[in-house]
Amino acid sequence: MGVSYHPNIRVERDEFVATVTVDRPESKNACTGDMWVALGATFRDLSHAGVRAIVLTGADGNFCAGADLGSMAGAGGGGGDRRPDPAASGTMVDAMRVLSEVVLAIHDCPVPVVAKIDGVCVGAGLGLALAADLAWCSDRARFSVIYAKRGFSLDFGTSWLLRQRIGVHKAKELAFTGKMVSGPDAFALGLVNAVVPADELDDAVKELVETIAGGPPLALSMTKRELDNASSSSLAEALELEALAQSVNVHTDDLREALLAYIERRPPTFTGR
């Protein structure tokens, strides 16, 4: 479906669910600069493509090993584990701002995004997972905030996203040590929503995204905005946003369908209108 911006970024659609796969297994799905840019463009497209849930994952048993250590060209330092080509046009700040746009395209996508994580998820790969709304991982998944081991400080949004997810003290512990964390330990820390056996991961995520895709798209997109904005708003501001969102919901076909389905004792069928 849609435009393919890079041969190593695959996009597939099954009704209302889109799956974005980082597909470069020879490097454990480490991304080049062009691949990061393609991911950003892909999520900007999916924001208005009529999908209701997006799965973000990696190919062949790994999620993403961050940026490509062997590739020196392209956009940005790429997850704290490679430098841009000094001969390339623009500055390091310009390059990192390109990466910033990718993080925002994923994090701010109005469609709920679920990271499906198997194998390695480190550096910018971890930032990629944290930019999603939810994360399900396998029991063999491995996570690391690896930047310090490469001589870099945090990037790809991890300085903000990691603290939001697990709190400042645990975030500092992972960032200062760069230690590897298992799937079960990642769940205990709050890095992921759930950990399941590797052979059950596909089915678990499929059930999750089908549930999300079956919900009211407009209401869920506003719920996502409400929760994302809550960390930087006052209670009064949050209440005002809720009031504005509900004033939209009461005029939708989906709300009328939900009420009718409740009266008729059947599951609602939402159209996103």
Summarize the structure.
It is built from 10 helices and 9 strands. It is α/β, with parallel strands linked by helices and 273 residues long.
- Please name the fourth-level CATH homologous superfamily of the largest domain: 2-enoyl-CoA Hydratase, Chain A, domain 1
DSSP strand count: 9
- What's the overall geometry? globular
Q: Could you give the order of the helices and strands?
A: EEHEHEEHEEHHEHEHHHH
Q: Strand sequence of the main sheet, in spatial order? A: 1-2-3-4-6-9
Total of domains:
2
Strand content range: 5-15%
Number of helices: 10
Low-confidence residue ranges: 72-87
Question: Keywords, please?
Answer:
273 residues, alpha/beta, 2-enoyl-CoA Hydratase, Chain A, domain 1, six-stranded mixed sheet, three-stranded mixed sheet, 9 strands, 43% helix
Walk me through the topology.
Layout: E1 9-14, E2 17-22, H1 33-46, E3 53-58, H2 92-107, E4 113-117, E5 120-122, H3 124-131, E6 134-138, E7 142-144, H4 158-166, H5 168-177, E8 180-182, H6 183-189, E9 194-196, H7 201-213, H8 217-230, H9 235-249, H10 253-264
Parallel strand pairs: 2-3, 3-4, 4-6, 5-7, 6-9
Antiparallel strand pairs: 1-2, 7-8
Helix pairs in contact: 1-2, 2-3, 3-4, 4-5, 8-9
